[in-house]
Amino acid sequence: MKxxxxxxxxxxxxxxxxxxxxxxxxxxxILEVAHLAPSGVGLQPYEIIVISNPKIKKKILPxxxxxxxxxESSHLLVFAVWDExxxxxxxxxxxxxxxxxSVDSAHYDKQRAFSKQFFGNMSIxxxxxxxxxxANIALGLAIIAAASEGIxxxxxxxxxxxxxxxxxxxxxxxxxxxxxxxxxxxDTKNDWNLNQKKVRKPFEEFxxxx
Length: 210
Prior knowledge:
By secondary structure, this protein is of the alpha+beta class. Helix content is 46%, strand content 14%. The chain has nine helices and four strands; from the N terminus they run ααβααβαααβαβα.
C-alpha cells in the first residue's frame, strides 16, 4: 500500500510530454490492468481504442481543445462505452461467461434477467452515463498501472465527444467516447505543472467516519 501511495504522489497531471515512445510491453501491461478492472454485473460495457499514429493524433488535436498532450503523448487511449445496454449485448456477455466457465446457461438466468430489467428501465442517456462510470474504474486503474511503469498519464475530459465519435466512427460500433488518457513521459524542462505542490482537500473533509 505504501508503494501505491508513493506512486500517486509521484504522478501528476502532465501538461507537456516529450513524445518518447513507450515500449509495447509496458503499454500492454497497462491495458491488461484496465482489462481486469471490475464492472457492474461483469458486463464491461466499454472498449479502449489505442492511438499511437501521429497523423491520427494530429487530427484529434483540434477536437480536444488543442491540448498538447494529444500529440506529445506516446499513446492516446480513448475510452469508448456502449451507447446502450441492449438485450443482445447482455446475452452475448452471459453466453461468453457460461462458455468460458463451462457451466449450463441456466446458471446465470437470474443475473441475465436482472440485467435486462435493470438497464431496460433506464433511458439511453442513463445507459451511457452508467457505462461511462464503469469505464472510469478501468481508467483509474490504468493511471496507477502507468505510474508503476514510470509512465506519466493525463486523464482528459476536455474534448468534443460528438466530434471525436464522428471522426472515429464510433456510432457504427454502438459506442460513444467518454474519456481520453494520454500516456507518455514528462517534459521536465517545459512542463509548468511538474514542480507544483500536490494539493488535495484536507483528509478530515474528504472522509467521514460513521
